[in-house]
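One such shown below:
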Amino acid sequence: MTLSPTIPMDIRRRLTDIGNAEDDGIDLADAALVLAAADRPGVPMEPYRRHLKSLAAEVRAYVGQAEDEADDETGADLDLRIEALVQVIVRRYGYGGGEDVFDDLDAANLMRVIDSRSGLPVALGIIFMATGRALGWAITGLDFPGRFLIRLDAGGMRKIIDPFGGGAVVEAADMRDMFKAVAGNHVELMPIHYRDASNRGILLRLQNNIKSRLVRRQRWEDVLETIEAMVLFAPSETELWRELGLLHAKLDHVKDAVRALEEYLCRTGGEDGRYNTSKLLQELRTKLN
């Protein structure tokens, strides 16, 4: 399938490599920088990598963890680790976000987030997670709706942190209030909302933020580019292929629509959407004849 010419070839190759990797083999922050570079062709990634390394080095120094020291040898307790993340990332470097970021496309681009020190919850969460993981800490994102949260484990204890809320610790009652604000008062928080988010899932969440804002602005060519990037790093997400095909059809890219919808039908195992997709595919193939 022909991909958008605005995605540089080297970025396409890197995204394809991410798509072929096992989830636990994905370097989350580096993958987010690759996605950011797709929107900023020619901007080098190395200064941003160095910045992330600096954050980790300063947090390491704060908790007194030697560079060659394994995580379970540090003795640093959970509260000290959270304090270190907040003091370095939020206080020293000024990372945060206000309500204005939710309308800002740059707030999901990790390069621009690092430049401005302001971003969406998921982008700030990636900063926190990259810092903790560089030190070998057990830190992960949660598949929580509405607000991206992270969980840090240490010494047999765990706490949930809100990167967008200045690194505040979130209790169960807080999560319940957050959830009801999004889902409504009639819906209750379930164990599924505490489950770990995969690295690929976090990248999809990052890009979905961009996609939804572009859709609202009806910037269809940019939406197309965003979905194409998502397909490269998450090829097993079958609905993305259908979405890509429908958008190509909307833009009258008939050949690409046919290829994307054929890929969707090959990958999907369920019947939902198959009939309508097959019908559209027939109509598109007729246009090619």
